[in-house]
Amino acid sequence: MNEILKAKILFIGNKDGDAQQVDWLLSNVAKPELELMHVPDADAIINQKSAANADVILLDADCTGDSDFETLKNLRVAIPSVPVVLLTDDEAQIGQYAIRNGAQDYLLRSQLNSSTISRSLINAIERHQGGQQPVADASPLLESATAVLNRLPLGVILVTELSQVLFFNDKAKRFLDRKDGLILDSNRICRAVVPSENKHLGELLASTLAPTSDKQGDSDFAMTVTRENSDAPLTILLAPIGTGIAGKGAVIFVSDPIEPIELSIDTICRLYALTPAEGRLALGLTNGNKLDDLAEEWGVSMHTVRSQLRQIFRKTDTSRQSELVKLILTGPAALQASPLL
Fold this sequence. Notes:
The chain contains 14 helices and 14 strands. The chain is α/β, with parallel strands linked by helices and 341 residues long.
């Protein structure tokens, strides 16, 4: 990798004092030569899709006014060829999440000095040039993956091992924005509004992330959440995700029973090589029904439905009802589904 002898830094921040401090810190760096440009907000940069030939963008988190990294995401989409370093006061709640949302690095305001700021900015440029983060050609792929999750007919909320929300799709956002049943608190934790239900949700999430018993039933990972503005509660299903170096987390599926979803049994059967009876059972479980209720409704024995369930597990390479439901709800069958009016 070629040595960087000169670099242009575009500082986006609405405080002249901060820009002057950054400029002074950079002026004390002997090598490489660092030139600072300053704009008060990101809108013009995003709209023009131009960083004025900057090699790196230093974005002040205080000037964005958003908690979902929309400014950062928009910068990455508009100017994917220029890395972004976030300036923040909060490492735990902002810095680490900024990297997951497209930042190359972050700087803590309390630790800012000539050495740390120059090292972070130059490293960001070098890593970006070396292809160690998603760049221009990867952005459409990330957007497409998000678009797929946004097409799902139910809410999808991804949480980390620390129970903090990493991502939610458009459907989940609508549930959270209503603040009726579920909310997203200031620490990016998904919570139930009713205290007793929130306690239950926390216990379920802890069990999902770190199961204490192999004998836990799938009903242990499902619950309902009361809504003040609706007689019908939200249905919640949790399932573990992630292994190995990627870490582990959980996915929370949120559905509204008054907005029923029509899934095709034929599609489910074709996708997973199920018999019609097995497809009917898979769909019944996906809709939140219990095995004994389905057996009673269909006039068959529990032995029959359990035998069918074992065959479904074998054909879909799953071992739990929650895994099966996750597979169906995030697969092609769900993408073809649409809310019934």
